[in-house]
Amino acid sequence: MLHLILADSELETVPLEISSDKSIGRKARKRGRRPTELILDSNYFHRPMKKLDDSERRGRPDIVHVCMLTALDSPLNHEDFLRFSVHTRQDKIIEVDPETRIPRSYNRFVGLMEQLFLTGEVPPENPLMKIEDATLPEKVKEVKPEKVVTLREDGERIRRENLFRELSRKDDLLAIVGGFPHGEFLSDVHSLSDQIIRIYPKTLEAVTAVTHIIQFYEEEHLENSLFDG
Amino acid sequence: MLHLILADSELETVPLEISSDKSIGRKARKRGRRPTELILDSNYFHRPMKKLDDSERRGRPDIVHVCMLTALDSPLNHEDFLRFSVHTRQDKIIEVDPETRIPRSYNRFVGLMEQLFLTGEVPPENPLMKIEDATLPEKVKEVKPEKVVTLREDGERIRRENLFRELSRKDDLLAIVGGFPHGEFLSDVHSLSDQIIRIYPKTLEAVTAVTHIIQFYEEEHLENSLFDG
């Protein structure tokens, strides 16, 4: 099983300190929410966000959206060999059931995240996503994987064979990918990881890291059964 | 070089026959455009779109967006071995320069597409995307590739080695992926293709086909130089 965690993701609700901003207030009224119930989105709240620490990287639900879309549609997920979860800057963990259908529309996805932060699980009738308080080390401990790797542009260049050495399809490999646009992990990934690896020597988008690690795993463990004739 | 064409993509402006719809008119006024200058979006124009032929598959700029985002951030593109283009239902071809930076925000992307359909190229000061009238066969003829493959769920299961047999890195492989949510290609891909292949026996999203064919090519032609130590 491949456990993929999008870590330190920039997904959060509007912080109290900017919740009295007029443009956020207008959007909240329009959506029938309190300002602090809205998902922080740098694309809409660029100006008020300037008051926040780390403002240049926060408010990026789009990164979570595109990573979820691609991860959940992968053959690896269809074959039930993937567990995808999201860890956020505020140490929340979103568990995503492999059967979840992610809204294709960005606005609907953000609406779903709003509801998730508000109620703790979505959809109400048959919850497929749940959000809980947990740090990245707590999540890793819960999975108890045979191996933990983190993807970073300054990681080690490795051969695919080495990544999977001594791991069978029954073993749990946990891969950590940063869910933020640039900068450093906020969590201490070094102490959690057996290996820090890279797939390319330049900065890549989170989604590119996600699709590549998934496909490495597919080719290692599903290729004979699926891709080849 | 890998030439990747997202074919029969459901990207178009609002057709004349539904342009007098009130909800479309409101959105057009808000954006300072004529109704027929807006990009058709099934998420916003679901009701008026019911009058259109093939209404259940049309108006999907989100598919083009996520495919462009992932294709242009791939190591293959960074290494200048990818040419990505979009062919649409109305036989328009969008040529995308490998250096193009695609807006992460869906709404900004749709705004950019609006401008592209209106002016023929974007951004104005230094055009990186151009749109022209051309059918899929015309585009294939222009590329003159050594081999053409189309990805379809009912295609042939193949080994990666066979896909690339007799092709060197200097040769042009052209891969066709459907840029629509479901149903059949509108273009006659059979007569254009040397091989119809599949990467998985079930229906996949366009983005999953895009990321997989790109990574196959990367592993065949870039692996020694990039991925391995």
UniProtKB/TrEMBL annotation, chains A, B:
GO terms for molecular function: rRNA (pseudouridine) methyltransferase activity; rRNA binding. The record marks 60, 101, 104, 108 as: Interaction with substrate rRNA. Its EC number is 2.1.1.-. The record marks 62 as: Stabilizes Arg-xx. Gene3D superfamilies: 3.40.1280.10. S-adenosyl-L-methionine binds at residues 178, 183, 199-204. GO terms for biological process: rRNA base methylation. It catalyses: a pseudouridine in rRNA + S-adenosyl-L-methionine = an N(1)-methylpseudouridine in rRNA + S-adenosyl-L-homocysteine + H(+). InterPro entries: Alpha/beta_knot_MTases, Rbsml_bgen_MeTrfase_EMG1/NEP1, Ribosome_NEP1_arc, tRNA_m1G_MTases_N. It holds the Pfam family EMG1. Methyltransferase involved in ribosomal biogenesis. Specifically catalyzes the N1-methylation of the pseudouridine corresponding to position 914 in M.jannaschii 16S rRNA. Belongs to the class IV-like SAM-binding methyltransferase superfamily. RNA methyltransferase NEP1 family. Homodimer. This is Ribosomal RNA small subunit methyltransferase Nep1. It comes from candidate division MSBL1 archaeon SCGC-AAA259E19. The gene is nep1.
